[in-house]
Each structure stands twice: as structure tokens, then as C-alpha cells.
Amino acid sequence: MTKPEGTHKLFWERSTTEILVLMVAFTICSAVIVGGTSVILTEIIHPEQDTSRAVIFVNDVINTLIGLLAGFLAGRSEMAVSSMSAPYGAVVKPEIPKKGKP
């Protein structure tokens, strides 16, 4: 089977989990952009309108996205470290240095 040409090449070597996280991140980023644009337009068109709750909501969504991506990266790095130290499914016992001569 050959690799597809064009934009599909971007997802060819990614795992299902990576694609899912990218889709969730894209969806949340789109919502933040639309929400932020709405707040900005409301401030310009109707400056007397209170937009503090909308700003807080957009800020909370941004913080959630940062936490989601940080957790994903931490999980990926932990998985990479554990896969380098032992074969899949193996239990690794840490080596305890013996007292005395090295």
C-alpha cells in the first residue's frame, strides 16, 4: 500500500489517539476564535454591553485546552520513556545500588 499524496500525508503516520487529540484541539480552538471574535465585535458595536462573563468563559476554555494538551504530551513522553526501557508488557524492577564498593 502506498502513501497517499496531498493533505492526507499529514495524518498517515499518526496514531488514532494523536488524530483524536488534534481534532479535539481544533474544535476547541475554533470555538475560542469564534467566541473571542464575538466578544471583540460586541465591544466595538455595543461598548455599553457587559462582556466580562464571556471573557471569563473564553479564558476558561483556553486554560482547559492548555491542560488537555499538556496532559497528552506528558502521557506521550512517559510512554516513550517506558517503551525505551523495556519491551511492551514487561515489568521493570529498578536496580538498587549495593552498599560498599561500586
Describe this structure in words.
The protein has 102 residues and is mainly α. The chain has a domain at 15-85. Helices cover 63% and strands 0% of the residues.
Quickly list its features.
single chain, 102 residues, mainly alpha, 63% helix, elongated
As a percent range, the share of helical residues equals 55-70%
The helix-and-strand class reads mainly alpha
pLDDT < 50 runs, ≥5 residues: none
Mean pLDDT: 77
SSE sequence, one letter per element? HH
Rg, Cα atoms, Å = 23 Å
Tally of separate helices: 2
Largest sheet: none
Number of strands: 0
End-to-end span in angstroms? 53 Å
Draw up the topology in text.
Blueprint lengths: L15 H30 L6 H34 L17
Helix pairs in contact: 1-2
Task: Describe the structure concisely.
Helices cover 63% and strands 0% of the residues. The mean pLDDT is 77.
